[in-house]
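Feature request, filed as a ticket because there's no other form

It would be nice if the structure record came with a short human-readable summary line next to the tokens. Right now we just get the raw output. Example of a typical job, pasted below so the devs can see what we mean:
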Amino acid sequence: MDNAIPALVIGAILLVASSIMARGTLHTYDQLDSSIKEMESRMGEQTRTRLTVTAADLDDDRDTLVLSLRNDGQTRLANFDRVDVIVTFFVAATAQTLWLPYESGAPTPASWTILSIADDVHEPGILNPGETAQIQVEIGSIVEAARTNLIVIATDTGSSVTFPFAS
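Raw output as currently delivered:
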């Protein structure tokens, strides 16, 4: 009988500890399940987003790039401030890489904006599937002549397009 009380206490502690561990394990599996569902949703969104650069023209001053960006995917592109535009170009035989922010109005040096969206009848101001946007990229530096440069456009879903342009 002297051992019965300590044995009951130890048994109770083991039961409480195992239930706490089981609850923690179930909570971890629930979080893992939520993370996997979120990742699948994000990956699905990424695969449904596809952009294509159809043309890129550098102006005569070689500091402004105008390109045509066609939405060939199944999702619309509305949050332009969440789109990353990265330009790699040459100045005096040195490669420079810039991340350019979105400007909703006229672009300032080292920024970009949407000039227009062709056939923008449905949801004006949003790049819907099948529509093509004219984008003006103000590089902010004079790009060296006779070089191949690169522009990368990446959406908030993780989809990106890379396009070389000549100066």
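Something like this underneath would help us a lot:
The chain is about 25% helix and 35% strand.
The two ends are 93 Å apart (CA to CA).
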